UniProtKB/TrEMBL annotation:
Entry similarity comment: Belongs to the thymidylate kinase family.
Name of the gene: tmk
GO biological process: dTDP biosynthetic process; dTTP biosynthetic process; dUDP biosynthetic process
Organism: Holospora elegans E1
Reaction it catalyzes: dTMP + ATP = dTDP + ADP
Domain Thymidylate kinase-like: 9-190
Molecular functions (GO terms): ATP binding; dTMP kinase activity
Coiled coil: none
InterPro entries linked: P-loop_NTPase, Thymidylate_kin-like_dom, Thymidylate_kin_CS, Thymidylate_kinase
Enzyme Commission designation: 2.7.4.9
Protein name as annotated: Thymidylate kinase
GO cellular component terms, semicolon-separated: cytosol
Known role: Phosphorylation of dTMP to form dTDP in both de novo and salvage pathways of dTTP synthesis.
Annotated ATP binding sites: 11-18
UniProt keyword list: ATP-binding, Kinase, Nucleotide biosynthesis, Nucleotide-binding, Transferase
Length: 208
């Protein structure tokens, strides 16, 4: 399977992934062919059900939570992502394997070897062609999560500031696959200026 067109977006909660994915979706579609946008947790009926369940269940044991994410990932890959790639689509995915290493590993305390092994056992150790890690200033991403509409907030959005800092660090320390880090130049980097950085890498990657 050619994963070159499989692009994932990673970063802390409120980093601005969804905004940039929408911009990239329109740009790719106009100039580089069909695009499919998906997300984790989610992406399939099973994944979306799991998303609702996980986001409402704060007391899941770390290994159980990890196994659920990975089982859903295998299903997502087999049912949705691989067929779309086989049909020539670009696939843009909001979070994927890196999130598990950061949240269940770096933050949740599970060994990286365990997480990798479980992915391999469940046939979900899939490394995307390109992974954008959207870095953010924790004070800013934290403030954005606090501002979220209360109907959209889940217990994960209530995480304290130190968790935002730890997530940022875990993404910085992570080395897996082809990662491009988009760093904000300053605290008040606008959506448009972040998008300019994306386009720079996008043009480079698509022309290769
Ligand atoms: N660079 C930015 N500057 C200011 N606000 C932003 C920026 N990027 C995103 N936002 C806003 O922050 C909030 C979270 O963005 P979103 O794309 O949903 O983040 P994520 O998908 O990473 O959780 C949204 O209200 C969005 O409009
Ligand atoms: C895919 C994945 C997500 N997560 C977490 C990260 C997020 O906090 C949450 C999904 O929430 P989501 O709303 O997608 O994230 P965001 O706030 O960035 O828009 O699930 C894991 O812990 N492990 C995983 O493998």
């Amino acid at each position: 399977m050619n994963v070159k067109k499989f692009i994932t977006f990673e970063g802390g909660d409120g980093a601005g992934k969804s905004v940039q994915i929408q911009k990239l979706y329109h740009r790719l579609k106009q100039e580089h062919g069909p695009v499919y946008v998906t997300r984790e947790p989610g992406g399939t009926a099973l994944g979306e059900t799991l998303r609702t369940m996980i986001l409402r269940t704060p007391d899941l044991a770390p290994k159980s939570l990890c196994a659920l994410f990975i089982a859903a990932r295998h299903h997502h890959w087999a049912q949705v992502i691989a067929p779309a790639l086989a049909q020539g689509f670009w696939v843009l995915c909001d979070r994927f394997i890196h999130s598990t290493f950061v949240y269940q590993g770096g933050i949740g305390g599970l060994d990286f070897e365990f997480i990798q092994l479980l992915h391999e056992q469940l046939e979900a150790y899939i490394i995307p062609g390109l992974t954008f890690v959207l870095q953010s200033v924790p004070t800013e991403s934290y403030a954005r999560c606090q501002r979220r509409d209360s109907s959209q907030k889940n217990y994960l959005d209530q995480r304290n500031f130190s968790i935002h800092c730890a997530v940022e660090k875990a993404y910085n320390d992570l080395s897996l696959g082809n990662i491009v880090r988009i760093a904000p130049g300053n605290l008040k980097e606008t959506e448009e200026s972040v998008w300019k950085s994306f386009q720079h890498y996008l043009l480079k990657e698509c022309s290769e």
